[in-house]
Amino acid sequence: MTEAATVAAHEYRGVPAWRRNLRLHGWTIGVWLVLLAMIPYWRSLSQQSFSFDIQALAIDALPLCFAAMAQAVVVISGGIDLSVGSLMGLMNVLSAKHMMGMSFREAIVFSLVILLLAALAGGLTGLVITVTRIPDIVVTLGMLFVWYGVGLWVMEIPGGGAPQQFFDLALGSVGSTVIPGALVIVFVALAVLWLPIRRLRSGLSIYAVGSNRNAAYLSGINVARTRIGAYMLGGVFAGLGGLALTATSGIGDPNSGSIYTLNSVAAVVLGGVSLLGGVGGLIGPIAAAYILTLSKTVLLIRGTDPNYAAVYQGLLIILVVVVGGLLSRKTHR
Amino acid sequence: MTAAPETLQPPSRVREVQRFLTDNPVFILVLVLVALFAVTEIVNRHQVGEPFVTWNQISTMLLVAAPLGMIAGGQTLVMLTGGVDLSVAYTATAAAFAISWQGTNGTFEGILAGVLVGVGIGLANGVGVGIFRVNPLVMTLGTSSVIFGLLSIYAGRAFEKVVPDVVTTLGRERFLDYLPANTLLWIGVAAVLVLGLSYTGYGRMLYAVGDNPVASRLAGVRVWQVLVAAYALCGLLAALGGLLLLGFTNNPDLSLATPYLLPSVAAVVIGGTSILGGWGGYGGTILGVLILTVLGSLLTLLDAEEWERQVIYGSIIIVLTAIYARATRSD
Fold it and tell me: pTM of the full predicted structure?
């Protein structure tokens, strides 16, 4: 952000700050406005109370939020991670298998173990990519099979569980308010894991490596370490996604993660992260995850054949990217 | 006069071998394939007490490999341009449904419908990627989501399905006991692809566009036309793959071609076509398809559990690509 800001400050000398911010964060703001605009429409269709609806949306979207964040970090660093979904599935079965019969305290400690394992798994992917210099998409495609296989080994058929208080973390709300716990978890994770890193040298390196690897190398950044770091951070988010799957579904299922790989790519693109790397943030993809979930909910309430949801979602993604591409081409000329 | 300059010394054996492999990367794949065959043969003799490499087995393997070979052929063309097509599986499934739906009107109508569906989806992808410059990953992901939705709506409704006899014959019959009909089609398509990529103007343009789109444009290539045609051809080949699968199972099913999506990418990658575009060819892909197929039979033979299969499958993609990249890297 700071780097982008200085560049833009130079470009926009004498231009009001709000225009600069609009230019820099236009897409993110736009995505959140779309989300806010969808809410009244959704509420006008829904029969349920507002607090119930918000709660349901936050819970539904929780795994996708984390999947989108995991994908976003990697994509910003100039890579792409096709193994996000199967890593989430692995962490899902791993947690559900071992948390069964644990006390709440043990479950929390075990969650940290899961996050550590997920970070190592992500780091391994990054290591293989940087050592072998095979394109990211190939290595992560291979890892997709590996993590899925390990997940099947851990748990062949859906099962397992976790202590009730663990479920309540995601399913409940904060104190006696209507604020859903699932919503808070997402923003706490964002605030703890991403916002500080983004301000630090390491976060800046991720953007630098993502936008131009050679230039980053020439300015003294350790490219390999940065890329491995990005995959590790992505792994942590995928681990959170796996825990979220456990908390929201109540069980472990080796196939639970399969839809999240492609949906996370969709959320990232919708959220304003360029697949070329170096552009975007995590706040946009979070909004995109809510939009994707909400659009499915709205179609369901309207009684549309749920299969049309896939059609609209595909068209929406294509449309957004086409429009976004045309807009960015216009501003760059 | 002291020692001769280094350049005059004869190249060492290692460098010679490396040079040979760099020039003939397909050779490594042949070695891997032969090694896999050998291992399978040993395991089979050990476990079953019979040789694995019989005409019957080879014929069965070709029968299994041909649909993947078709789908991976389209994938090769697209990946040569630096793209990727993640909609091939649903394109193949959609084509299969179209064939069995129009099959009620006659064989020709059925096959025509399947081909049109395949080319149509490919054209849509091509227009998105070539004209609107949407990232190929996103574009094909989007179309596959759309196709999947439409297919699930459409497949949920009862309708009369007729699989034309020709399709069934193509999908599962064997001529002279050992020559699968689908392999004959595959050989034909392979010849067209291999020769076409090397000797036609369009084939060379695919490489040029994949290697450097800007330079190609400046050299007068209409890049968008090349891309649209590449995706359309990919759709056509996916439709042919769907046709063979339909003939094999004789029943259109929503998940007919789904298991072929990632293997199609894997086969191309193992075959040495660069995912960044501009380098590779269909010859390698054929070997990639065969390697994946033999590996599949080996794992079946070893009675591998599903999780072991997945792990080995994933590792093999990474390991083979790594070996390949190392052996062919010019210093």
Answer: 0.82
